Amino acid sequence: MDAILNNLLILTIFFPLVASLIIFVMPDDAKNTIRRLAFLFSLVPLVLTLVMWFNYDRVDAGMQFQTILPWFPSIGSSFHIGLDGISLAMVLLTVILIPLAILVSFEVEDNVRTFMFLFLLMETAMLGLFASLDLIIFFIFWEFGLVPMYFLIKIWGGQDREYASFKFIIYTMAGSLGLLLAIQIMGVSMGTFDIPELMNTWVTLPSDGVLPNVGLPVDLVKTLAFWAFVIAFAIKVPIWPFHTWLPDAHTQAPTGGSMILAGVLLKLGAYGFIRLVIPLFPDQALTTAGILAILGMLSIVLGAYAAFGQWDFKRLVAYSSVNHMGFVVLGIAVMAYAYGMPGDVEGLNYSAIIATNGAVLQMFNHGVTAAGMFFLVGVIYSRTHTRDLKKYGGIWTVMPVYGMILLFTSMASLGLPGLNGFVGEFLVVRGAWPVFTVQLALSMLGLLMTGAYILKQIGETLHGPLKPEWAGLPRMTLREHLVIWPLMVLMLTLGVWPQWLLAVINDTVTKLFS
Amino acid sequence: MNEQTLELMTWLIPALPILAFFIIALVAHRNRTLSWVIAWIAIMSSLVLSWTVSLNVLTSSLHELEEHPVQISSTIDWLPLGDYYQGEWLQIGVAVDPLTAIMLLMVSTATTMIFIYSVGYHNWGHGLGKHKGEPQHDMTEEPLLARFFGYMCLFGGAMLMLVVSDNLLLLFIAWEIMGFCSYALIGFWYAREYPDPKDMPIPRIPPRKASIKAFMTTRVADVVMLLGIVFMWTAFGTMNFSQAFTAEKFQEVIAIIGPVGLAIMTLMIFTGTVGKSAQWPLHVWLPDAMEGPTPVSAIIHAAAMVSAGIFMLLRIFPMIAVSLEATPWTGLIIAGIGAFTAIMAATIAVAQYDVKAVLAYSTISQLGFMVAAIGLGAYVAAVFHLITHAFFKALLFLASGSVIHGMEHGALHAHDHHHDPQDMRYMGGLRKKMPVTFWTFLIGGLALAGFPLITAGFWSKDEIFADAWYQWSHDQKTLALVVFVTLAVAALLTAFYTMRQISLTFLGKPRTELAEHASESSRFMTIPLVILSIFAVAVGWSGISDRFLGTSDIFYNFFHHYAGAQYFHLFEELYEMGLVSHKIESLPWSWMPLITSLVVALGGLALGWLVYARRPLEKGQQDPMVNALGPVHRFLNNKWGWDGLYDKLFIKPTIWFSERVAYELIDKRIIDGILHFIARTTYKIGAYLKLFEEKVISGGLDRVKDLFLSVSREFRYLQTGKIQEYALISVFIATALAVVILLINSGWLVNLF
To answer: Do B216 and A310 touch (CB under 8 A)?
Structure first.
């Protein structure tokens, strides 16, 4: 028992890997056994994470459940993992979404074994990334997560899966290239890849000095490395104008894949900003915070307009991710501005704490609602075999419960107060107001259009006279209910009583700024 | 009653209906009867709680209320922001002060009446209807009754939450939930379709489009309001009303953001009201909102929604008052929008045929009265008119619903489904068919018209006139005179179109089979009408001026003193600091406003009588105003053309921009174009590399190999196999080496370089 309790984090991360190997050696024709086994396996990290959640020390609010194992001592890299409030929230999101996505993927009929194998593999990658405290480990998990998703889209995707999967992997790889180089130069010059250590050494390098071991000017290297990090993460978030891979990948991915793609993978980029970019490059972050805020604003506004311009249901939902992640970016911009600002400006830190809280909460909220929305698109697609909004109409009459669930989830996505979306957005808006007033005011145009595209999607699917071809649509199955209800409970509880999650995030964020 | 009980009761007032919503949604959604029973229990419990709490507060001594307006207050920690151990929380809570208490009485009563009425309106117990998502033209029970009552509970609960909220954030949360409920309820008949608008005598948009229009139009305002709220939070450091609105805080804030900053904040929050309370230029959603079932129109137009907008202004009234003093242009904007809306909507109402459309525009117009009053700083008058209007407008809407219901009965009886049961041209003579509806409608109508002395509308409008006149005669404010005249004309029109409506609907002879066979509605519907008519008359008597007709000590203006107690103390302090120019005070008596009220109310009613009641419309006869006004009538009937203008100006361009620019041009052509260009370039470079590999690498290597071979062929000749030749070469090389070494040793080479 002690062995488990002392190694909770490492178990959480690597259990899915072990599980995936077990799945891999199963006979391929035992589809139902594989599905159920994969689902059961995916519950284990959830339980382990809950144990960590309740053992998490809020007073400390720093890195906990840390493990350091020797790994590659000759280059100064070790297997260093740990969780603080921000990463714990992200880990929780991941372990909640994966079982639900696997449950959705029971509908996959081809190559079930490979599908589940890849899915569990991806879970390890994502959990490892949120927990890693070493740049090399971080990078390995970063790349490791790409491959299963690539295959999920390429093999089980829609019609344009070749184009979408290729665009997805090449685009992300292009970003990681710079990331790898930047990580290398940081590690070589500092003699360590350990993130907490780099926070002391790398950050405090005199900016007009020369980098040890490398002999290049610090300022130049920092600027280049900063941009390499920024571009890699910006592609992942995605921040406008690096976003066009997203609608393609999301639309083509299988339902379970879209849920994880929108729910967790997009968060990796934003997490990278909060964990690495801003703490490691505070000066550069300060000078570019304004640009970041403008890009966040453009993501919000143009993402919303583009979503409103869609007639493909899934593509519309995909664009809504650009819109919602824009608020995360705006919050991160405020964090960047305040974190890098020397001295104590009246009220600035408080605004930044609010904005950063809002950004992290928005990440969690978007994970929940976007996964829910993609699931609901999948439900209707599996029945009608079309995603064309013009072809639907009046479906509420035949699927009343589905209609209410879609309405509920859409409203959470719209940011209706009382449901989760509002809290994060409101905090970001409050935090950004004194810092980026103009950008924020322009973003409101996007918030307005959020309403427009959400009402469009509800109106075109549910409302209107019932078309005869949909008269016989079957109602939602028990399995489908099992997927959406946990998400709806989260949407409501996070809207009404967000402090159960926000408290954990807030402690860490406040510590970051003190 | 002890404090804790009252606090708990205050929390329960909004909590019970919201809880009922969840119970209906999760448990009772298949049982229509159970659902309305649950809804009734919840709303009636809230009613009892509201009256208990309110009367508890309002029975405190006036002096006590003036010193401590917040009588009940309870907060909870909601969001942890900042240092947990220093207790940095964002708190939300409930509070009851005189304004809340007065509002609670109105909201709970009107909402309960609407709930009772709804059961009859949806023909409960008349056999299950078969048309989901459409009105039941065969007068059977609404199949989605549970959904209807679920939403209504959420709506009522949200409005009650808005009223008891002690801070702007919770208010905004309730505000938005109401927005959602109105969206869901306006579009309740989601499957309803209309023929082409050109083929309809009264062009309409289907409910689902009306609901989107309502939500989006109010959202335009809400996003601006959201900025105003965060502005307030940033500047004041709190969103709590009683903490933010103190004289010291105002001084402090003005010192930081300046009077202009405060004015901008005020106007941003005010924008929320422009949307919610349907003021020009965002008024367009409210007339279409009547596409929902009539109880929904009643709750939107009276108890909740539009009242919420005005209530919010009353909540932030200290901020408005300070802005009015420091930056008079804020007053110009607020009062200007209010007065313009009042007159514009009144002119539109004159030329409408839909019985509900007339009422919808009259709501917009009356809300304009309130906004104008607030823009002049007439706080008490605005509260008073808000309350009286809510009662008589709820009454009028429910009565008009009863009329439509009766007409639909007629349609069913006569098998006539070609005539629109809401079109007043097809009515007439309903006085005899529906006596209770007629008398209650008459009372509501007279209250709306401001019929002197008896009705509530007279007293509350008179109070607005009195304030405007005082500000002109005493302070020489030109704005006040302009508002006074505009509102007087609007009031005249109000009386006129009310008389027109009553005449067209109830007087004369039935003009269609529908009206001929119309029958009185059930008790579920008529009892609320009777109760509301009592309020529509009696509420006014609580607000008769202390110095009415120049007397003293005969009348006591309860309303003025108790509503005024809300800000009495605060305004004294603000006055002393010079932040406002008036305290909350009773006005001296003046005959001018009274004469104006009498003239416009009676004059308007008389005009209406002359045109419509003296010789009621015959079957097939045209509205006499059509010829009298000519193209103006068409303009008014077309609602000044705002809808068409907005369609051209905003909606079409937005769709075009979204589909053509944001998606196709920016994303597809430009961004993806660049990506594809990079991809193609990479492919091309790849192709060149391949060429290079073929020509240079492969070809080049071959050349090197050949060269090497040929060189070695040359060198082959060196290998003669003769030992003396080898020896000779060896000696030669050794000598050369020795020379080099000697040279190096002698340092000659060093000198050389």
So the answer is: no
